[in-house]
Specification:
The complex is a heterotrimer of chains A (about 350), B (about 250) and C (about 300). Chain A is mostly helical and about 350 residues long. Chain A is about 70% helix and about 0% strand. Classes of the chains: A mainly alpha (about 350), B alpha/beta (about 250), C mainly alpha (about 300). Chains in contact: A-B, A-C.
Chain lengths: ~350, ~250, ~300
């Protein structure tokens, strides 16, 4: 039984379990670089670089969420910043009220916020799932460029809403003075927080891998490749896409909550359309529809941001050039270049 | 008297001034191949779209095995047992033949909302798929991506996907189109055996195949059925000869 | 809420709508004819404003500056089309979004590099300064009226272009069947460059005229771009009529919303909360409008059938 490389790249259910193909080796290497790099930086006392690695991990997680909808589901959402921001605000508002000891959102029967990570993460995931369900229900009736625009519109709505709400900082944003806690761990320790985020990234990646190899994943792949074929086979495409969209929003939302804690701050910049574009950029940079694509993309992007940003304050000019070059000439992103045939047709 | 498996009753569809489907009534009985022929522009595609569920008719009704198809989605009709192949192949090009067929098997077995067990080695999906592939003589192409298949082979995969649904009726849209003589012969033989398993509504241009295969023929011209009967009846019907068979149809 | 205030705000809404129409018509033409989403359209708006400001500052003549701004934007559009855009026509929308997003970064940061972050100055020309007495006791700036008038002229001009000229015929044919007009021997490359440059020129004109009212600075095109996308989605992508209707609708709804909603909320809320909530809802209003329209008409109000 032949297993052509193109099948491996395009058919998530066929990815080898115990043998690693080139894509697998690259994925593994990326993870190792992150872990080794962060640990080495910590031992060298450079917590700045540990936080840089954590930033890569968190942005990768945001991209993993988007990639599920975009790369594997074929839904080009230009509004994922909505979930990233909502997750961040959950963490921020939770910490705010815990600090203040007042009920969340000023509503009496809600708890006094929380500075515990697990409840915050679960709340972020739940709320983002609800939001994605609502937006998905309303948006998945459209397709093509209309879908892109309507998802953008919903994200803009939430952005303007957040700017206008003064209690939680409005345009200035909301600081998180003390990083939220998890059991007895010292989350203020940069390496501890790194491994927390890394653990969540691995959890998300494993979950997506499993999901994509399942019957649901097969249906989702077909919904992307040929929805007419899917319907003719007897499966309604819309509910499948909606579920994928909701899960996608949840994962990106979790990343947002982590991002807020990393920076000790949540602001409306987590909700603007540049952020949506940025998350899309890292997915493309890494390679659309490659499971570990966002990891590669995030590492590349944050590295460029840091390195180029140190060289010139106009680093986004060069980022634009690199991005343009990738879109025009390296269509499969990092994984396309390194691991062969791009699945992005 | 046998009940019709697929019953199309008084179907009508207008596009502005164009009456594309005029009071069309056709039924497909168990064990038969019912061919639908007609010149280009007769409205065959419009009719198929209404049967399959992509185009709602203005009036009339559709019944599959006694159940109403009206207002059901394409997927719902497929689940009820309407198997369909497309004139222009509609498959997932980058996936293998087997994976395409497995999707139909998966749909037949019920919920696609299973998130855990890998599909790749799932025998409950592979075995039925492989059985259908064997029936279509496609076993040695099972792992090949559809994009690499010849035109004729893609047709076979389409039929395989429809068969995997264990359909109650097969709607085949010009399955011979673009096949060479060898491919046509193979498909004709296959359809002859298939009809005992599942009745077929066959839309075709290839007259030789039609006259060889069809138990009954309906002739569609300008949106309405102008003649109906077996091969001899149709061959000798003057209206049909004038409207259709008089043209060079090779 | 007096009648004169309402009328004045209505005019402001029309003026905003006019400017949005200039932006949206270019966007919708490009999408309709070439099937391309162009996020960098806001950069042409910015280019027009910057060149106009600079040339007006150098020559002292607003009209020369305006012409220069428009031509510069069109020229930049043509160059960008030749260098980058034409490679994207056959790519999917995701690639187009990404590539043109990259162009935004390049244009914005490049402009910041050249001109710095502080705004440039552009003043309303003396010939159009001052105000005019209008019905309902409204004293309205002449310049803004001129913008509305310009919008009417441009709309008529575009209508004539599309329906009466050979170029317009080719554009309409191109919108209907892209492959066919190539097969019929129409020079597609030139047509596309022309359409793209026309759109860019209109955007530049919009930027130049608004630059006199607001400040000319980097990133000024972005909020306008998003609004323009909302307009063409509401109007139906590919339809100039849709762009006009959508632009006027968005302009008026947005302007009136911002003025009326806080007052509306003041009816049953205390003043400061009402202002806050009113302003928040007002800024979300056109997105809500777009979402509602898309739910009932998924392809916009005047969708072009392909």
């Amino acid at each position: 039984m032949t297993q052509s490389h193109s099948l491996t790249a395009t058919d998530p259910a066929r990815s080898a379990r115990f043998r690693l193909d080139r894509e697998g080796w690259i994925s593994l290497s990326l993870l190792l670089i992150l872990v080794v790099g962060a640990s080495a930086a910590y031992l060298a006392g450079e917590s700045f670089f540990v936080n840089l690695a954590t930033r890569m991990v968190i942005i990768a997680l945001a991209g993993v969420g988007l990639n599920l909808a975009l790369g594997f589901g074929g839904m080009v959402s230009f509004g994922h910043a909505a979930y990233f921001g909502l997750g961040g605000y959950v963490a921020g508002i939770g910490a705010f009220h815990a600090f203040d000891m007042t009920p969340a959102l000023g509503i009496p029967f809600l708890p006094n916020g929380s500075d515990q990570l697990i409840p915050l993460w679960l709340t972020a995931i739940a709320l983002c799932g609800l939001l994605a369900y609502g937006i998905g229900r309303l948006s998945l009736g459209t397709s093509g460029v209309y879908f892109i625009m309507i998802t953008l519109a919903f994200a803009q709505m939430i952005y303007y809403f957040a700017i206008s709400w003064p209690t939680y900082g409005g345009e200035d944003g909301l600081p998180i003075y003390i990083r939220n806690q998890l059991w007895g761990l010292n989350t203020n320790n940069s390496l501890v927080f790194f491994f927390l985020c890394f653990g969540l990234l691995m959890l998300a990646l494993s979950f997506c891998h499993r999901l994509l190899g399942s019957r649901f994943g097969a249906a989702l792949t077909m919904a992307r490749l040929n929805p007419v074929r899917l319907a003719t086979s007897g499966v309604e495409p819309r509910p499948i896409k909606l579920v994928a969209f909701v899960i996608s929003g949840m994962i990106t939302g979790l990343a947002g909550a982590l991002f807020a804690d990393l920076n000790g701050f949540v602001g409306t910049s987590m909700l603007d359309w540049h952020r949506s574009g940025e998350i899309m950029v890292i997915v493309i940079l890494g390679g659309v529809g490659r499971l570990y694509g966002p990891v590669a993309g995030a590492m590349l992007f944050v590295a460029m941001e840091f390195w180029l940003g140190g060289l010139t304050e106009y680093w986004q000019f060069f980022l634009g050039l690199v991005l343009l070059a990738v879109v025009l000439f390296a269509r499969g992103g990092v994984f396309g270049l390194l691991a062969g045939r791009s699945r992005h047709e | 008297m046998n009940e019709a498996v697929l019953s199309i009753q008084n179907l009508n569809k207008r596009f502005g001034a164009l009456h594309a489907t005029k009071e069309v009534s056709i039924n497909v009985m168990p064990g038969e191949i019912h061919a639908l022929i007609g010149p280009n522009g007769a409205g065959k595609s419009t009719l198929i779209a209404q049967i399959a569920g992509t185009l709602p008719p203005d009036s009339g009704s559709l019944w599959l095995d006694g159940q109403s198809l009206d207002s059901l989605s394409v997927a719902a009709r497929a689940r009820l047992g309407l198997g369909r192949s497309f004139q222009v192949s509609s498959l997932a090009e980058s996936l293998s033949v087997r994976r395409n067929v497995m999707m139909a098997v998966q749909a037949l077995q019920g919920s696609s909302f299973r998130f855990w067990k890998p599909v790749n080695n799932d025998a409950s999906l592979r075995e039925p798929a492989d059985a259908v592939l064997a029936q279509m003589a496609l076993t040695d192409r099972a792992d090949t991506p559809v994009a690499e298949l010849s035109h004729g082979e893609r047709r076979q995969v389409e039929v395989a996907c429809a068969l995997a649904l264990k359909p109650k009726v097969l709607l085949l849209d010009e399955p011979m189109a673009g096949l060479g003589p060898e491919g046509t012969a193979k498909l004709t033989t296959l359809l002859e055996t298939l009809k005992h398993q599942v009745p077929i509504l066959l839309i075709e241009h290839d007259m030789d195949a039609v006259f060889r295969l069809a138990d009954r023929i309906s002739v569609l011209v300008a949106g309405e059925v102008i003649a109906h009967g077996n091969s001899d009846t149709i061959r000798n019907d003057p209206n049909v000869r004038e409207a259709y068979l008089g043209d060079d149809h090779a | 809420m007096t009648l004169s205030l309402l009328f004045e705000q209505l005019l402001n809404g029309l003026q905003l709508g006019t400017m949005l129409f200039l932006m949206a018509s270019g966007l919708t033409l490009v999408f309709g004819v070439m099937g391309l989403i162009n996020l960098a359209h806001g950069s042409f708006y910015m280019t027009g404003a910057f060149v106009t400001a600079w040339v007006t500052g150098t020559t002292g003549n607003f009209w020369v500056g305006l012409l220069a701004g428009m031509l510069a934007a069109a020229a930049v559009g043509a160059v960008v089309e030749f260098a980058v855009i034409r490679r994207l026509y056959h790519r999917d929308h995701l690639d187009q979004v990404l590539a043109t997003f990259a162009l935004i970064l390049i244009f914005s940061e490049g402009t910041r590099w050249l001109y710095g972050s502080s705004p440039l100055w552009l003043n309303v020309p003396d010939s159009l300064a001052g105000s005019v007495m209008l019905p309902f006791g409204v004293e309205y700036p002449l310049y803004r009226l001129a913008i509305i008038g310009m919008g009417v002229l441009i709309a008529m001009g575009l209508y004539l272009l599309i329906s009466r000229t050979r170029l317009g015929m080719r554009i309409r044919a191109g919108e209907n069947d892209r492959e066919m007009i190539g097969a019929l021997g129409v020079d597609i490359s030139t047509l596309y460059t022309l359409v793209f440059a026309l759109g860019a020129g209109l955007a530049g004109l919009a930027g130049a005229t608004i630059g006199a009212l607001q400040s000319v600075q980097v990133g000024m095109g972005e909020p306008v771009l998003i609004l323009a996308f909302v307009v063409i989605v509401i109007g139906g992508i590919g339809s100039i009529k849709g762009a006009l209707v959508g632009a006027l609708l968005v302009g008026v709804v947005d302007t009136l919303g911002r003025v009326l909603l806080p007052d509306l909320f003041k009816l049953f809320m205390e003043a400061s909360a009402a202002s806050g909530v009113g302003a928040a809802i007002a800024s979300m209003l056109i997105y809500i409008l777009m979402a509602i329209i898309l739910i009932f008409k998924p392809n916009g109000l005047f969708a072009v059938k392909h």
